[in-house]
Amino acid sequence: MSIPMPTQTRDQALPELQTPNVSNREGLSLGNLPLYLTLFLLSAMFTIPFVWLIMTSLKPPEEVFAGGLLPTTWTAQNYRDILNDVPFARWMLNTAVVSVLAVVAVVISSSLVAYGFSRIRFPGRKQLFAILIATYLLPGSVTLIPTFLIWNELGAVNTIWPLWAANIFGSAFYIFMLRQFMFSVPQDLIDAARLDGASFFRIYWNIMLPLMKPALVAVAIFEFGAKWNDLMTPLIYLNTPDRYTLALGLSSLKTDYEALGTQWGLLMAASVIFTIQMIIIFFLFQRYFMEGIATTGIKG
Q1: 114-137 tens-digit pLDDT
Q2: Residues near 17 by Cβ (< 8 Å), separated by ≥ 6?
Q3: CA 287 to CA 96: how far, in whole Å?
Q4: CA distance 245 to 276
């Protein structure tokens, strides 16, 4: 018996099978067009000042206030002058050292305290955590003078110790943030490790820290940016130009270096160098930063 063949040929069937649903895709794109346009306009609003900063830093002095965004004469002399006329490289090194030490100290101390509050049950845990959060509500200006007197008695004024050493005791905000992230880690992992004989510190070091990498990166970026941009603390404790940080050094260009204070091209070049560091760091760790921010509010 012969099997009857379909009357529709292969060439006739292919167009029908391969026809995409174009109308749905176009409708989706057109529906999102106002959103994309709004995001583009907002991005441009925040980007234009930074573009103007870069363009001004590449202009000769006579063109800074001449009008127009693009310079007619492109020059990098402002960058050469700012690196040669002031100890800019030294300020950058001081800032990098302070920022890295502060990040390492606050990440280790805050994550360790957060682990205790999230996974170790002890009497008065909730009360102690409430007191800890209450310290975050205390304005920094209240403790400014007592903190200075303590560092002065320790002989640490005009050193970098007051700029980062307080992070050894953790931060209330970071402790809260990391504690919330730890609630998303399944308790079964902790129980299994305890059954295998792992100590609390081993669980923290070998299990919790690797799982907390997104949140730790977010904390590190927050703290690095805070120390990189900090002006008040170096202004209070430092009085030797060779020990200035970048923020204090830029501020001193208007006072200690009066000849440079009116050269706006130099100031713009210094501002570009000061700003570009954080932009690079953010884009390098953007994925971990976004993931850490998105998951620190999850509680299991």
Answers
A1: 999 998 888 999 999 999 999 888
A2: none
A3: 23
A4: 16
Average pLDDT over every residue of 81-99: 91
Contact 267, 258 (CB under 8 A): no
Tell me the domain boundaries of the chain: 31-75, 86-295
Indicate the residue type of 198: A
Q: Pick the closest to residue 167 from 226, 96, 91 (CA basis).
A: 226
Query: What letter would DSSP give residue 208?
Result: I
Which letter, b or e, does each residue of 175-187 get, where b requires 16 or more Cβ atoms within 10 Å of its Cβ?
A: bbbbbbbbeebee
Superfamily designation of domain 86-295: MetI-like (1.10.3720.10)
Residues 215-235: b if buried by 16+ CB within 10 A, e if exposed: bbbbbbbbbbbebbebeebbe
Structure confidence at residue 150 (pLDDT): 95
271: helix, strand or coil: helix
| Mean confidence (pLDDT) of the chain | 84
- Both tokens assigned to 231: 């002006």
